[in-house]
Amino acid sequence: MLRRKTIIVLAITLMVTVMVTAFSYLYLSQILRLRIVNASDTANSLTHQLAYAANNAVPDFGSTNIDTRDPVALKRALTEYVQTDVDLNNLLQSVPGDWRYIYDVAIVDVNGKALLHTNASLLGKVIEPRPDFEKVVHANFREQIRLVFSPAAVYDVTYPLQLLNFEPRPTSAASVAPFGTIRIGVQTIFLKSEVQTRLIRALYVSGSLIILSLLLAAGISNIALGPLKVISRNLDSVSAGEADLQSSESKHDEYGLVSLKIANLGRQIRDSKEIFSALKDNVDQLMSKLQDGLMLFSRDSRIVLVSAPVESFLGRPRGELLGRSVQEVFARDSLLGAALLDAFERRRTMSQREFEVAGGKRVQVSLDFVQEKNSQIGALIIMRDTEPVRRIGDEIEMSRRLSASSRVTRGVAHEVKNPINAIVLHLQLLQNKLAQEEPDTRRHMDIIDSEIRRLDRVVQTLVDFTRPRDLHLEETDLRSMLEDVVQLAVPDAEQHGVGIDLHLAEQRLPVKVDIDLMKQAILNVVINGVQAMPQGGRLTISASRQNGVALAEVQDQGKGIPKDLHDKVFELYFTTKKEGSGIGLAQTYQILQWHYGTVDFESSETTGTVFRFHIPIVASAAQTHSEFAEDAATSQRGD
Predict the structure, then answer these.
(1) This prediction's pTM
(2) Cα separation of 124 and 110, whole Å?
(3) In CATH, what number does 4-198 get?
(4) Residue 628: which H helix or E strand, with range?
């Protein structure tokens, strides 16, 4: 964008250039036309002089022996006199020397044969006619320029030659044609040199005037726009929030009044800027923390606000989206783009519809138009990832199943516990009475006692699983807790030929958990991983920080879990092992829920199974401040 000062200078210079060009055009056109007309008049005048001289050179044939009634003899005699007349020949030869733009002069007969010619080698030869100089005289200026400045050419100025003595009787055939023609050749090369000299002079004058106008325009613009520099500096000061403003030399002219208004406006802008800055920080924090993608459009369908999740949904950074129209962001070759563009064109809202976006994600998209006083002033697009919604639904369903199973188990355990206690009591009495009986009877009684106690432990486990727990929460490092779990699992792993690899983050991972319960939850998965590799293998345990939570992963190299069993893995009593109780993974899931965490898994028949534990991290005050500052900086870069 050109500066206003430059525009003024260029405008004045352009105006002067146009005027100088117009005057130069008129000047050159008049000069060229005058030179051409002068050349034409001179050539015509010379033809008349030559015709007069030719007539004077003809003698009176009445006193000669020439038969004047014989046209052929008479013409032969006239030709001889014309060719031999000294005055006529001298005049003819002097013309090219006196006039630079005259190329040659000739007198030809009616057949075009040269009777006289400034070029003696052409005498007696037929001279081809050349273009008429009248074509140049009557052409417009542009055509005259083209003809003069084209390669050198010669044009004819002609005049019919009628000799007074060559007047046959009316019945004679010679009366129908003149004696011959006078031809003067006008060459344009000398016209070109004369015009070119004046053209160069005009160009010098025009260039000088244009340069002078440029300097004059620069001076005028400095005088007119000088005070604007002060106003510009005042505006910069207002933008920077400075209080001191420069005053104009005169406070009574237009510039002085503008400066005063800028000062008042600056105070208002500073106040508004402080309020806006506070609001912007709050909005940026809110948009960066939102889980849903929000896109706010202005009245002309341009994006004015974008939340962070939109970047992952559309695969484009927020800074690239701001200010663009809906047509520039969405294309009709996708289902999402076609639906949104149609909705914008028809100005109709769109209820929640599911689409596939970048990266194969499935999102729910809705469109609403913002109205004010029955007028649409903008639009709002909401994008929601369907995967967390589905996961939450699955977790709710799993919790519902566990709750239902817990209620049934609690009732069954209560009903079974009482008979078992009675059986144990009476078994002890029977053992005392049969103490002196046969040893085989004693052995069978011991087996019954052992199995009843084992059944009591199973029932007690069910009771413990369904009983509400009081968590003893303690802050600990997840890394040290995983090291303790590994120590507990090593003996069982060695028996199965399984090696355990431990990869822990360098930074501390503080979590607030019931240490015993969390160890049990992780140990259940570790033991399952060891047992999934009967032929041996490697079990990998890792821990890191990810998206504000502590992530622990347990990965085995087993055969994996069949896909049709994925939905049942965390159900109570579900197991694929012959001696399994189906309680371990359900207990793990429940413990993670008690700690506001989650557990999920991925399984493949080729790479094995990996379980992931997501546990909230306990942040210190310094860490919280650091993360807040980092989020604010990220939001500003996104804007």
Answers:
(1) 0.38
(2) 13
(3) 3.30.450.20
(4) helix 621-638
Indicate the fold that domain 473-625 takes in CATH. Answer: Heat Shock Protein 90 (3.30.565)
Those residues with Cβ within 8 angstroms of residue 498's Cβ, 6 or more apart along the chain or in another chain: 530, 533, 536, 537, 538, 539
CB 542 within 8 A of CB 503: yes
Distance CA 121, CA 118 (A): 9
Cα 105 from Cα 182, distance rounded (Å): 8
* Cα angle: 392, vertex 396, 401; to 5 degrees: 145
Contact 484, 449 (CB under 8 A): no
Fill in the amino acid letter for 590: Q
Side-chain half-sphere of 616: how many Cα atoms within 13 Å?
A: 12
pLDDT in tens, 329-379: 888 888 888 888 888 888 888 888 888 877 777 888 888 888 877 777 888
Token couple for 376? 């649409």
Structure tokens belonging to residue 8: 């003024």
What's the count of helices (H) and strands (E) in the chain, helices before strands?
A: 17, 16
Residue 129 region, left (φ>0) first, then alpha (ψ -120 to 50), else beta? beta
Angle between helices 86-98 and 4-57 (to 10 degrees): 170
The H or E element containing residue 483 is helix 478-495
Nearest to 230 by CA among 252, 260, 273: 260
CA distance 117 to 108: 8
Residue recorded with tokens 């006619």:
129
Q: CA triplet 507, 509, 515: central angle to 5 degrees? A: 145
Rounded CA separation 365/341 (Å):
13
d(CA 86, CA 118): 14
d(CA 539, CA 489): 11
Query: In angstroms, rounded to a whole number, what is the distance separating the alpha carbons of residues 23 and 202?
Result: 10
Which is nearest to 467 in space by CA: 569, 587, 571?
587
Task: Tell me what the pLDDT averaged over the chain comes to.
Answer: 77
Size (the chain), residues: 639
Helix/strand/coil for 332: coil
Is residue 350 exposed (0-12), middle (13-18) or buried (19+ Cβ within 10 Å)?
A: middle
Number of neighbouring beta carbons within 10 Å of residue 405: 17
In whole angstroms, what is the distance from residue 45 CA to residue 190 CA? 19
Question: Distance (Å, rounded) from C-alpha 117 to C-alpha 86?
Answer: 13
Angle made by CA atoms 261, 267, 268, in degrees to the nearest 5: 90
| Tokens at 2, concatenated | 């050109």
Q: Using one digit for the tens of pLDDT, what is the confidence trace for 98-134?
A: 888 888 999 888 888 888 888 888 888 888 888 888 8
Q: Domains of the chain: which residue ranges?
A: 4-198, 325-468, 473-625
- Report the C-alpha gap between 540 and 495 in whole angstroms: 17
Task: Report the first-to-last Cα separation within the chain, whole angstroms.
Answer: 25
Give dist(CA 395, CA 390) in Å, integer. 9
Degrees to nearest 5, angle at CA 631 with 628 and 637: 145
Name the DSSP class of 301.
S
CA distance 138 to 148: 13
CA torsion angle for 434, 436, 442, 446 (degrees, to 10)? Answer: 70
Cβ atoms < 10 Å from Cβ of 526: 24
